[in-house]
Amino acid sequence: MGGEFRYAEYYTAHAGFTTDIENILCDRRSSYQRITVVESRAVGRMLLLDGAVMVTEWDEFIYHEMLVHPALFLLPQPRRVLVIGGGDGGTVREILRHPSLEHVDLVEIDAEVVAVAREFFPALSAALMDPRVCIYYRDGAQFVAQAPDASYDAIFVDSTDPVGIAGGLFDEAFYRHCCRIVTAEGVLALQSESPLHPVYRETLPRVHRLLRPLFAHVASYLAPIPTYPTGLWSFTLASKRWDPVDDFVPEDAWQRYRNLQGTLHYYDPGLHRAVFALPVFVQRLLASGSPSEGSSDQLL
Fold it and tell me: Which of 88, 110, 158, 161 is catalytic?
């Protein structure tokens, strides 16, 4: 189609991400959402759900590495892992880089997301074919509510924004069940939206308020995701035992890092402690539970 189209996702009336579109490869509706795959010279193939960017070939490695590895490098021998969402396969790919992994359950509500990923993002979704992976096409909140106690060493919530079908993945009951079904040394990691977003920045302090009564340690960290709204994204890690900074052992982590399957492009153990040092405006957001005066509003 030769660049006849332009994609734009605005997070305010005046700002957003935009790129020329060379081809529309897929555009279909599932029972839950509209699923679109487009191709751009700037960022490669893009997976859109209801028009919002989920994955691009250009920067997906940052999101997936940063969701997974800060949590898994805290655990001495992670073996059983649960992923809620993540039907594109990128989170599972990063989990399976750890040689100790024995089993991964992926719970994706929309089977069409997995089908589209397999067709149009074969490298990204290849990990879903690993025999250690079991896929359940179910609601994630219902799955954790029915799962046995202490079933998993780690849980990753790779969800869309906290509205619609993903809304139940951001409430107290869901987090309470996650706490119940991880082991005594278990960890929970999730994407917690952008601290600069005019609406969803409130997600980060809300997540902290809900997780702190349940887990001994709750900490957030940031990473740049250029194709996501505002370009700055937060992740939150909750642990029953391990402090993500004080209990992190760089020497052990570097040894494990050298034994990973494949090559990472963003995360390494030298970065680990640094990402938990938050900018002042994020510290204030977490302390107050609401955006500080004159902070991100002036950037929008």
Answer: 158
**Contact assessment for residue 63 and residue 223, using Cβ atoms and an 8 Å cutoff:** yes
Strand partners, 7: 19
CB-CB contact of 91 with 68 (8 Å)? yes
pLDDT at 215: 98
User: Are 55 and 121 within 8 A, CB to CB?
Assistant: yes
Q: Residue 242 and residue 224: Cα distance in Å, rounded?
A: 25
**Tens digits of residue pLDDT in 160-206:** 777 677 788 889 999 999 999 999 999 999 999 999 999 999 999 99
Check: CB of residue 242 under 8 Å from CB of residue 75: yes
261 - beta bridge partners? none
Counting Cα atoms < 13 Å in the Cβ hemisphere of 163 gives 9
What superfamily in CATH does domain 5-56 come from? Spermidine synthase, tetramerisation domain (2.30.140.10)
Instruction: Give the single-character DSSP code of 139.
Output: -
| Half-sphere exposure (Cβ direction) of 252: Cα atoms closer than 13 Å | 9
Q: What number does CATH give the domain 60-299?
A: 3.40.50.150
Mark whether 158 is an active-site residue: yes
Evaluate whether 221 touches 237 at the Cβ level (below 8 Å): yes
**Per-domain residue ranges for the chain?**
5-56, 60-299
